[in-house]
Amino acid sequence: MKPSALSTHVLDTANGIPAAGMALELWRMEPEPALLARTVTNADGRTDAPLLTPESFRPGRYELRFDVGAYFAARGEDPGYLGTVTLNVGLKAEAGHYHVPLLCSPWSYSTYRGS
Questions:
Q1: CATH fold for the domain made of 2-111
Q2: Residue by residue, what is the 3-state secondary structure of the chain?
Q3: Where are the chain's structural domains?
């Protein structure tokens, strides 16, 4: 059995750099929406600690909310039309480490289950 955990990182694909200083939130959506964490990415575009550790992990639906528009505006760039990018993910117990990267520009984003 693999313990489950959750981490993320953000890459600014418009500038080819880690998205340092991007605000993000983690919400648990079941049974009622609840804010679990609010943090900011570090110089490497990652959070300083996992969003969910094996000890705090519970299976279910979660949302990661990334403040993409504010990040680009703070850099003095056109924030495009993206504001908050929301990723709704279903996490299972004993499925190993979930790593959810966000690749973004002011006009687009993509994600995948990383390692």
A1: Immunoglobulin-like (2.60.40)
A2: CEEEEEEEEEEECCCCEECCCCEEEEEECCCCCEEEEEEECCCCCECCCCCECCCCCCCEEEEEEEEHHHHHHHCCCCCCCCCEEEEEEEECCCEEEEEEEEEECCCCEEECCEC
A3: 2-111
